[in-house]
């Protein structure tokens, strides 16, 4: 009987969450798209601000669902005292990447503490109804991923992609922003970890190019480089598992990373010595993050035993 009640509860929860998110998307999506079309004719700060308000309204509905439909999920959030976050700031953020739930965690944490978070995303997502065009309208840097063979055959592809990302980053300077970069470039799996022969226990190898580009364009005008670490101490969840209430605990740690004095001395793409120096700096950040994840897991395991 208990198992049957649990199943019915999950079915009811799934129906309510799915219907609410779907209805909210159809309510908020068309205005964002309609206002976005006007930008084809003229740029408007007012329209950008309105679109952000509409998007935050959509995120707040998702967060309301998390608070009221998923009360069993316990959050453990730690923010470094040196990190002074506010809604008018300009932030670059890096984060480990394990699941589509990571983005929801970021939105849940950030919507009341930081400006709207954009992140580097694949160009192919532009074809997802509502969501893809909204990414473009809201200023998400969208990257076309070309294989090494394609770039070798046509080197201009790489330059074209970098220029589009550069323009997207520069457009963010007209407003407060949080720009998120998943340095691993893909979600963590045991198979990928083994295939890479990653030197980290909990992370894939970081890719420094996107962060280097963002710092080159925005570095002098950001308030902080923020390192977010997300830990699912029980297991890495799927998106459906999260919304069905099958994620008992989520831990989030945020700290400020001090930028070295040399960060804007050269161009990552053009200077091999600088590129090696930058990659070494990112590797150090990743080593510290890997250690932090171990400590977070140990602390959470101890707290569950007490």
Description:
This is Acyltransferase. It contains 10 helices and 8 strands. It has 306 residues and is α/β, with parallel strands linked by helices. The chain has one domain (72-305). Strand 4, helix 4 and strand 5 (142-143) form a beta-alpha-beta unit. Helix 1 (2-38) runs antiparallel to helix 2 (45-69), helix 1 (2-38) packs across helix 4 (131-137) and helix 6 packs across helix 8. It is globular and about 60 Å long.
Give the terminus-to-terminus CA distance.
31 Å
What fraction, in percent, of the residue positions are helical?
40-55%
**Continuous helix count:** 10
Give, in order, the helices and strands.
Answer: HHEEHEEHEHHEHHEHEH
**How many structural domains are formed by the residues?**
1
Class per helix and strand makeup: alpha/beta
Could you tell me the radius of gyration in angstroms? Answer: 20 Å
Choose one word for the global shape.
globular
User: What is the number of E strands?
Assistant: 8
Q: What's the overall average pLDDT, rounded?
A: 87
Physical arrangement of strands within the biggest beta sheet: 1-8-7-2-6-3
Uncertain ranges: none
What characterizes the major β-sheet?
6 strands, mixed
What is the beta-strand fraction? Answer: 5-15%
Domain Phospholipid/glycerol acyltransferase: 91-233
GO molecular function: acyltransferase activity
Organism: Acinetobacter qingfengensis
Pfam families: Acyltransferase
């Amino acid at each position: 009987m208990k198992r049957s009640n649990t199943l019915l509860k999950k079915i009811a929860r799934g129906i309510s969450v799915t219907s609410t998110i779907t209805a909210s998307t159809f309510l908020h999506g068309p205005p964002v798209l309609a206002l976005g079309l006007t930008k084809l004719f003229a740029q408007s700060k007012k329209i950008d601000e309105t679109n952000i308000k509409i998007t935050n309204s959509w995120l707040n509905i998702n967060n309301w669902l998390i608070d009221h439909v998923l009360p069993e999920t316990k959050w453990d959030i730690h923010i470094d005292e040196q990190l002074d976050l506010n809604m008018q700031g300009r932030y670059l953020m890096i984060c480990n990447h394990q699941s589509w739930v990571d983005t929801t965690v970021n939105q849940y944490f950030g919507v009341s503490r930081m400006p709207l978070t954009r992140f580097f995303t694949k160009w192919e997502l532009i074809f997802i109804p509502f969501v893809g065009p909204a990414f473009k309208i809201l200023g998400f840097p969208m990257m076309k991923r070309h294989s090494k063979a394609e770039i070798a055959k046509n080197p201009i592809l790489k330059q074209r992609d970098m220029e589009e990302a550069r323009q997207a980053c520069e457009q963010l300077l007209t407003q407060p922003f949080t720009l998120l970069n998943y340095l691993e470039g893909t979600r963590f799996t045991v198979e990928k970890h083994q295939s890479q022969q990653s030197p980290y226990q909990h992370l894939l190898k970081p890719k420094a190019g996107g962060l280097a580009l963002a710092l080159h364009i925005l570095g002098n005008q950001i308030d902080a480089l923020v390192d977010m670490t997300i830990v699912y101490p029980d297991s890495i969840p799927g998106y459906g598992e999260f919304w069905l209430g099958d994620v008992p605990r989520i831990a989030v740690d945020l700290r400020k990373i001090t930028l070295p004095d040399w960060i804007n001395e050269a161009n990552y793409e053009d200077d091999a010595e600088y590129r090696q120096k930058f990659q070494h700096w990112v590797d150090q950040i990743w080593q510290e993050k890997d250690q932090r994840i171990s400590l977070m897991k140990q602390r959470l395991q101890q707290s569950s035993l007490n």
